[in-house]
């Protein structure tokens, strides 16, 4: 026993030493030396040494691995085993959706009042802005979930439709002076049309090819927005985008304003609260439509398509049209979210629509669990909300974001909520279907 | 006169399918009789599944004509139609050699997907469905009833809400047939439905197929290796070898055809020559 | 004509760099069927490692030629080795645990790894771009501007270096894949990973080696990029990566000569587009080519067509 445990210790140390060596190779140059244009060297590059940082990084890897080796990977009773026993079983999560949805909903509706009463009108602004941001991502996640989660079509250029929506509103308002409420549906329709236009030629591609073509389209749209200076303002973007009104009432000080009409004291927070409810409503519409569609033939065809496209064709389903509806619908919701983004910011530029945005939205969908609506909410709250709150470490934000993406996927490749709820039930008490049985689609 | 000559549901004329230089099917012609169970048999690699893929539109034949005669006197040239239309319009349904169920969906959902087109129409192409119009609810209820009927028929009603991938192999085969039947076909093409079944399951399959033919009025075209199934239930047997038809007739005729015996059992070369002389090749 | 010739030279140079990166994509896609999204960033890391080595060793154009060449070879080797460790680590941490799992998961971890690499370099090396004095100035003047356009065609020494190094590496590498047991192991893993492991091939090691080779070639591309353009930043990996992937797809993914051919074509298209139409839309040209190729010729120029099994 003791000899065995000793050899275990030795092998653990050896393994950790190997890890440390690799860390040394990784970090000695990239972390330990910084090539920087030094002042007073005539624009020449100089090297700034940081051996301390390397020592820390190597130390962290060595001791981290040693601890994991001794107590988790090579231990007779891994600590994680004990921890797993304390964790609720995966099956108990399947009912989560049932009560979590109403709880989230109530919380979302009363949130502004909670924040107002706790932080006061001006103090709550920051949190309301954050809530709006998170809800925007929830909506985008839900929109993309139709495409990726239900229909199994991997779309890496979703942000293109977000951009189309935002620019549609901005340009329609700029050139024709149309109001937000007219532009909102138009933006959605335009985005859906773009979805169909882009989708039609590419939807017969399979798997990663579809992913890469959608990525390419996303980039094309961004580059065009960036360079079509006369029309879109290029990198300067479009500013002075009109704010939405509350059924014709502007959020302004004065006689005709929203506050005066309702006999309230004017506060700039009113507009923020209104925007929050606006995006909440838009997101809920997205969710409602999606939940509804899942139970309709078209939604079932999407899921069947994800499971087996050839079988679908043998059953008389027009797979091209079915894919297009998913693509167009996802694009439409992206377009709605885009025009909301434009009206909230009052300013848009191509910088907001980079590939990174698509990646973040896709990450939210996949991390939450493909096809799971509640999963998207949880992932958006954690990934977006969590990070905005640690603004102090803004520099490390994306680094941690990327690490979390890798970590969560390795831990739970199927996402946080991975059971599939049947769309129809004969007995009325159908159980959730384990993710292991559910296909992820080939497109 | 046999039903396949005077009342065919499907006529295949001079069907040829080449993959590059390989001739998978060469100038094949045969008929499938209305109301018959027709078996397409032949050694491995004879081109049976290729015929199926041509009939159901997954391959476009190099040459030839495939005509579906529906009971309402409509004619469809299948070689010109995309696969999904063959199922939707010409009412030809099929199953697959390697079962293709929607594994992550429940049995009921599988059967609902098969009724996609009528339901889509009833839901007013989704728009009516979103607002929950009454006609859609009615159509949906009928669809569920049809699914329930078929689940009951294949003895899987109990498991209606279980995921299809959880079913044992034999049940999956029967579910795939039920799913094909839910699309309301006039011709059902089954690719090796008895493969991998034990004798009991094989017997159940026979009675299911006979039920489908007798009670539903659906004609069946099947590929099968299991001769007990073929000889017991089929009215008409077509034998393929190397992409060509070598025999065509009733099970009794085919069973005694020397060319079939030669193709299946193999014979000394002299005897092949002899047989070929006899049949005039 | 002179203008055309100059664009051709520039296009081939750029194409060589894309081709070197594309090989990494094509090999990884061939063997495990995933888009290694972080590969572009591995290229970027390779460029940074080369940069740091160049600055640390004080390599400049004023060195004696022999010493300069020797130093560059040394830098190339060290940079290949260190970048390989990065490639290996990414595979080990982000992809290997997900082998045989859900197809989307490694794609997400790949995007995650790409974000991590970019931001790590941004933090550790700073966000400002890094200008380097030209290491290999000068070149041949092929045309003195004698034509009516008066355009001077130049073939710089750095361009010659890039094209020569790429050609040598390509030949060596193709031999490695076609002739050695490692190449055989790789091809067998491409065909059927399970069977390969049953026949005693260490699949994990073969895949790791694929990443190592891809990363080392990307680091060569990094050094070449640095020498050619003389400036890098932490963001060069994304665009170069997407274009190299386009090249791999254009040439037929999984095919080594295809990757090189695709790289050359993308380089040429991009250069000619910038030269004759507009610089702003050169990326649009590259991406449109990608879309068009995938739609009309999904197997690429030298790839094998995929037959749908029913």
UniProtKB/TrEMBL annotation, chain A:
Residues 12-110 form the High-affinity branched-chain amino acid transport system permease LivHM N-terminal domain. It is found in: Cell membrane. The keyword Transmembrane helix applies. Pfam families: BPD_transp_2 (PF02653), DUF3382 (PF11862). It is a multi-pass membrane protein. Keywords: Cell membrane, Membrane, Transmembrane, Transmembrane helix. InterPro entries: ABC_transp_permease, LivHM_N, LivM-like. It comes from the Bacteria. The chain crosses the membrane at residues 17-37, 49-68, 99-118, 130-154, 174-197, 209-229, 272-290, 324-347, 359-384, 396-413. The keyword Membrane applies. Its main location: membrane. This is High-affinity branched-chain amino acid ABC transporter permease LivM. It comes from Roseibium litorale. The gene is livM.
TrEMBL record, chain B:
Signal peptide: none annotated. InterPro entries: AAA+_ATPase (IPR003593), ABC_AA/LPS_Transport (IPR051120), ABC_transporter-like_ATP-bd (IPR003439), BCA_ABC_TP_C (IPR032823), P-loop_NTPase (IPR027417). Keywords: Amino-acid transport, ATP-binding, Nucleotide-binding, Transport. Pfam families: ABC_tran, BCA_ABC_TP_C. CDD domains: ABC_Mj1267_LivG_branched (cd03219). Gene3D superfamilies: P-loop containing nucleotide triphosphate hydrolases. It comes from the Bacteria. Residues 10-267 form the ABC transporter domain. The keyword Transport applies. One of its GO terms (molecular function) is ATP binding. Belongs to the ABC transporter superfamily. This is ABC transporter ATP-binding protein. The lineage of its organism: Bacteria, Pseudomonadati, Pseudomonadota, Alphaproteobacteria, Hyphomicrobiales.
UniProtKB/TrEMBL annotation, chain C:
CDD domains: TM_PBP1_LivH_like. Keywords: Amino-acid transport, Cell inner membrane, Cell membrane, Membrane, Transmembrane, Transmembrane helix, Transport. It comes from the Bacteria. It is found in: Cell membrane. It is a multi-pass membrane protein. InterPro entries: ABC_transp_permease, BCAA_transport_permease. The keyword Transmembrane helix applies. Its main location: membrane. The chain crosses the membrane at residues 12-35, 42-61, 67-90, 102-121, 157-177, 284-302. It holds the Pfam family BPD_transp_2. The keyword Membrane applies. Belongs to the binding-protein-dependent transport system permease family. LivHM subfamily. This is Branched-chain amino acid ABC transporter permease LivH. The lineage of its organism: Bacteria, Pseudomonadati, Pseudomonadota, Alphaproteobacteria, Hyphomicrobiales.
């Amino acid at each position: 026993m003791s000899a065995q445990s000793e050899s275990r210790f030795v092998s653990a140390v050896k393994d950790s030493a190997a890890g440390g060596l690799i860390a040394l190779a990784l970090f000695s140059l990239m972390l330990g030396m910084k090539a920087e244009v030094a002042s007073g060297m005539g624009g020449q590059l100089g090297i700034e040494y940081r051996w301390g940082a390397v020592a820390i990084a190597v130390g962290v890897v060595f001791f981290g691995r040693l601890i994991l080796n001794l107590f988790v990977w090579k231990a007779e009773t891994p600590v994680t085993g004990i921890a797993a026993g304390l964790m609720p079983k995966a099956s108990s999560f399947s009912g989560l959706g049932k009560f979590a949805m109403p709880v989230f909903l109530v919380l979302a509706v009363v949130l502004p009042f909670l924040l107002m009463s706790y932080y006061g009108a001006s103090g709550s602004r920051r949190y309301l802005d954050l809530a709006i941001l998170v809800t925007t991502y929830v909506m985008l996640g839900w929109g993309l979930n139709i495409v990726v989660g239900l229909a199994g079509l991997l779309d890496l250029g979703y942000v293109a439709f977000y951009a189309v929506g935002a620019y549609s509103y901005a340009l329609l308002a700029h050139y024709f002076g149309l109001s937000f409420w007219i532009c909102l549906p138009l933006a959605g329709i335009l985005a859906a049309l773009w979805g169909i236009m882009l989708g039609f030629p590419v939807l017969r591609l399979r798997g990663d090819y579809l992913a890469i073509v959608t990525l390419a389209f996303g980039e094309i749209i961004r580059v065009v927005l960036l360079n079509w200076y006369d029309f879109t303002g290029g990198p300067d973007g479009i500013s002075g985008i009109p704010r939405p009104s509350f059924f014709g009432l502007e959020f302004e000080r004065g006689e005709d304003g929203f506050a005066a009409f309702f006999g309230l004291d004017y506060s700039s927070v009113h507009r923020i609260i209104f925007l929050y409810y606006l995006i909440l409503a838009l997101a809920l519409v997205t969710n409602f439509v999606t939940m509804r569609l899942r139970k309709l033939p078209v939604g079932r065809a999407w899921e069947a398509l994800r499971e087996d496209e050839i079988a679908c064709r043998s059953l008389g389903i027009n797979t091209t049209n079915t894919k297009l509806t998913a693509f167009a619908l996802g694009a439409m919701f992206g377009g709605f979210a885009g025009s909301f983004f434009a009206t909230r910011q009052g300013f848009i530029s191509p910088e907001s629509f980079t590939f990174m945005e698509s990646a973040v939205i896709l990450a939210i969908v996949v991390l939450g669990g493909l096809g799971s609506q509640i999963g998207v909410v949880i992932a958006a709250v954690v990934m977006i909300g969590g990070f905005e709150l640690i603004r102090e470490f803004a520099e490390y934000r994306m680094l941690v974001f990327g690490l979390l993406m890798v970590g969560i996927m390795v831990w739970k490749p199927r996402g946080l909520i991975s059971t599939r709820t049947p769309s129809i039930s004969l007995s009325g008490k159908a159980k959730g279907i384990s993710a292991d049985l559910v296909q992820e689609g080939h497109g | 006169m046999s039903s396949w000559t005077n009342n065919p549901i499907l006529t295949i004329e001079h069907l040829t399918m080449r993959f590059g230089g390989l001739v998978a099917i060469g100038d094949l012609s045969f008929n499938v009789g209305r109301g018959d169970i027709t078996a397409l048999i032949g050694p491995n690699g004879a081109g049976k599944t290729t015929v199926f893929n041509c009939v159901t539109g997954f391959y476009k034949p190099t040459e030839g004509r495939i005509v579906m005669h529906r009971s309402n006197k409509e004619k469809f040239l299948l070689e010109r139609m995309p696969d999904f239309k063959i199922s939707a319009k010409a009412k030809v349904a099929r199953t697959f050699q390697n079962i293709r169920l929607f594994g992550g969906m429940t049995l009921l959902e599988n059967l609902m997907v098969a009724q996609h087109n009528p339901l889509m129409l009833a839901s007013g192409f989704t728009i009516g469905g979103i607002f929950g119009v009454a006609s859609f609810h009615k159509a949906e209820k009928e669809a569920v009833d049809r699914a329930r009927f078929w689940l009951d028929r294949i003895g899987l009603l109990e498991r209606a809400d279980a995921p299809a991938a959880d079913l044992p192999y034999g049940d999956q085969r029967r579910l795939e047939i039920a799913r094909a039947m839910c699309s309301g076909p006039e011709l059902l093409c089954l690719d090796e439905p008895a493969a991998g079944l034990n004798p009991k399951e094989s017997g159940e399959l026979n009675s299911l197929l006979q039920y489908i033919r007798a009670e539903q009025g659906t004609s069946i075209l099947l590929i099968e290796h299991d001769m007990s199934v073929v000889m017991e239930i089929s009215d008409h047997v077509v034998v393929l070898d190397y992409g060509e038809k070598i025999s065509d007739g009733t099970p009794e005729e085919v069973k005694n055809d020397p060319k079939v015996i030669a193709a299946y059992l193999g014979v000394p070369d002299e005897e092949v020559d002899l047989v070929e002389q006899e049949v005039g090749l | 004509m002179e203008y055309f010739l100059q664009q051709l030279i520039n296009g081939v140079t750029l194409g060589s760099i894309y081709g070197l990166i594309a090989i990494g994509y094509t090999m990884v896609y061939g063997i495990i069927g995933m888009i290694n999204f972080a590969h572009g960033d591995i290229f970027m890391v390779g460029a940074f490692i080369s940069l740091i080595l160049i600055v640390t060793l004080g390599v400049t154009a004023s060195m004696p030629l022999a010493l300069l060449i020797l130093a560059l070879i040394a830098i190339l080797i060290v940079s290949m080795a260190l970048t390989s460790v990065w490639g290996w680590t990414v595979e080990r941490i982000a992809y290997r645990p997900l082998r045989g799992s859900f197809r989307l998961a490694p794609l997400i971890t790949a995007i995650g790894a790409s974000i991590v690499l970019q931001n790590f370099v941004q933090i550790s090396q700073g966000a400002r771009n890094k200008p380097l004095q030209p290491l290999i100035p000068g070149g041949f003047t092929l045309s003195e501007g004698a034509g009516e356009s008066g355009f001077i065609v130049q073939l710089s020494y750095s361009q010659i270096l890039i094209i020569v190094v790429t050609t040598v590496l390509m030949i060596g590498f193709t031999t490695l894949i076609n002739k050695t047991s490692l190449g055989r192991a790789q091809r067998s893993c491409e065909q059927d990973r399970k069977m390969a492991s049953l026949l005693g091939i260490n699949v994990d090691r073969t895949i790791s080696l694929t990443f190592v080779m891809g990363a080392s070639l990307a680091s060569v591309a990094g050094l070449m990029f640095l020498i050619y353009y003389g400036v890098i930043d932490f963001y060069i990996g994304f665009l170069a990566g997407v274009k190299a992937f386009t090249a791999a797809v254009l040439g037929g993914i999984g095919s080594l000569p295809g990757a090189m051919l695709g790289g050359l074509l993308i380089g040429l298209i991009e250069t000619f587009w910038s030269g004759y139409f507009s610089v702003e839309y050169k990326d649009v040209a590259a991406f449109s080519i990608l879309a068009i190729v995938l739609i009309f010729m999904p197997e690429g120029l030298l790839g094998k067509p995929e037959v749908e099994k029913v």
